[in-house]
Amino acid sequence: MAADTIRWEQDDTGVVTLVLDDPRHSANTMNAEFQASLAVVADRLESLRDTVRGVIVTSAKKTFFAGGDLRELIQAGPEDARRIFDSSMAVKRDLRRVETLGVPVVAAVNGAALGGGYEIALACHHRIALDAPGTVVGLPEVTLGLLPGAGGVTRTVRLLGIADALLKVLLQGARYTPRRALEAALVHETADSHEELLAKARAFIDAHPESRQPWDTPGYRIPGGTPADPRFAANLPAFPATLSKQTAGAPYPAPRAILAAAVEGAQVDFATAQTVEARYFTSLVTGRTAKNMIQAFFFDLQAVNSGTGRPGDIPAREVRKVLVLGAGMMGAGIAYACARAGIDVVLKDVTAEAAARGKGYSERLCDKAVDRGRTTREKADAVLARITPTADPADAAGCDAVIEAVFEDTALKQKVFQEVQDLVAPDALLCSNTSTLPITALAEGVARPADFIGLHFFSPVDKMPLVEIIKGGRTGEETLARAFDLVRQISKTPIVVNDSRGFFTSRVIGKFINEGVAMVAEGVEPASVEQAAAQAGYPAKVLALMDELTLTLPRRIRDESRRAVEANGGTWLPHPAEAVIDRMVEEFGRTGRGGGAGFYDYTDGKRDGLWPGLREHFTRPGTEVPFLDLQERMLFAESLDTVRLLDEGVLTSVAEANIGSLLGIGFPGWTGGALQYINGYEGGLPGFVARARELAERYGERFTPPASLVERAGRGEPYRDR
Ligand code: NAI
What we know:
This protein is of the alpha/beta class. It folds into three domains: 6-209 and 222-286, Alpha-Beta Complex (2-enoyl-CoA Hydratase, Chain A, domain 1); 321-503, 3-Layer(aba) Sandwich (Rossmann fold), CATH 3.40.50; 508-715, N-(1-d-carboxylethyl)-l-norvaline Dehydrogenase, domain 2 (Orthogonal Bundle), CATH 1.10.1040. A hairpin with a 2-residue loop joins strand 18 (600-603) and strand 19. The site of 1,4-dihydronicotinamide adenine dinucleotide (NAI) has 24 residues, from helix 14, helix 17 and strand 15. This is 3-hydroxyacyl-CoA dehydrogenase.
């Protein structure tokens, strides 16, 4: 096997620079070649121990080191456990050999060092990060359902103490810029240039000829103590509680494994801790959740961002100046997202005051970012200077894109486009942020329907990473490509869907909510419904979410849908949720949080508890619905509808379906998305189909698996894009 992914460069002063530079891949990963190279390097360093004065580890790639080889990890099954364990132990052993050589080893981190990359840096005595865009450090394994298996748990616990290692690094998987990494003691120094980086590395070697790690120094104790100390032990029970809060009881094995590896590892010597870590690592890698999460958050996300939904043969274009129509909640957020990405923004509302209020939103976000040290005042001011609030349509001149976010009203939306369409650039991209109105019909009201497209943002825009692009019946391919490029320009993730009522996200989240409300209709305790959503891993409880969206909105959409079905000669089949929503609105006047009362009570807009009347009027004591059914009904309702959307051609790829469900509507992350959930269900697709039939029998037709799914299960073919 080729062992040439680490280049050895020795100068005449006895300093060896190890250059991470995998010749076969664009990024350095912990693949088999790297492992072989590491072993060779460790041998060579040991044999030249007397002539080597110090070691610098740096990279020739854009990223310092990308981490584990996910292509390989995702394929590992239970039968590979031995191999995974051995390879984790081999990397640890070789890093440890370099760490204990007795000569100073410095990590000159000149690019992203996440996961395995930061673990390599942790094995070095001194870490210097190049303070440049793109350099980040951290251990984000938990976000892929994994734990750092190359010494990351063992060393962060010994570097920071158990509590800080867990809370700052391991459990959130946070990524640190060089400056923040310095504050958090994850690196020792930063450097402003490559030259300075290497000079500082050499200076460290000169000043510390016999460097060793703190944990290899006599008298060393883990900062903050270990579970054996009575003081520490008193706090220990808080950790599982924190963890439960974080995962709400949902099946995320990684945080638990990390906690266990950290606590157990702190009570034993370094070598044993490494073995403990490798054992937990192996159990996660060979399990199902890591596969789901790697598939979705790495492979699907990468595919979607690099163009799954974009026509490939159209050259990329950038937007320079955007007109945002409507400076309300959404318009204000969209203006901020665009300005942050360096786009000039004209933010128009009916009055100058309303427009200025919209800009005020960006001012608040910028102030907060400066306060928290996430940006400088100068940069924040530059963002704000890009936003021009106005009530004057003439300011639209020269804009090469329009994003409309006025009230949800077809006539009004068409009117505001007509007002500006002759003022903006003649080929300006025309986008509507409507959340429910069909794009094809809206486009009828503008002069250039081929340039018209839906751009559905999510609230709050600055936090939500997804944008759903909706292609109308007359939307041109070039328009689609430009809309896609605009979404990428503002660093969001675009999924592309064909026009349909509720598009993808609004329609599917509606199934989730309706299912929760249907349980209330059946007489299930409302608190159990909420608990089921939380334990299934949904970020929002179902009835609380309904209150946020208001109860009147789904009624209106339902009435429109019913009219459409009936106009077509069809029969409307009412969903069991409808009667509850109607009574809530008509009989009790409870329309949701906006109206001050809904499934919950509110004081000054803050949620108190579930409305006691809910139990009184709807709950039937003795209603026995198994808890697992409550959870799976929500998951199945959404997954099954996602399959129907694929069948209907609204969705056109599996990756977009998974990413849209995860980033847009809070489908639980451990599943890997609404279609990956079906792939990963116990028993695979046939298991899912059998369970769907069971739910259909117990709870209604809506769970009957679509024919396409049954056929796919018969072929044994999971949902995957080619
Ligand atoms: P909003 O009520 O906060 O803001 C609407 C703004 O449009 C107001 O500031 C209003 O003064 C302004 N406006 C009305 N007529 C105008 C005109 N002729 N010219 C310029 N401005 C005008 O509403 P919000 O929540 O921002 O929603 C806007 C759009 O975004 C709607 O179509 C909504 O369906 C959609 N949307 C909303 C989401 C949400 O979570 N609220 C999520 C995704 C889409």
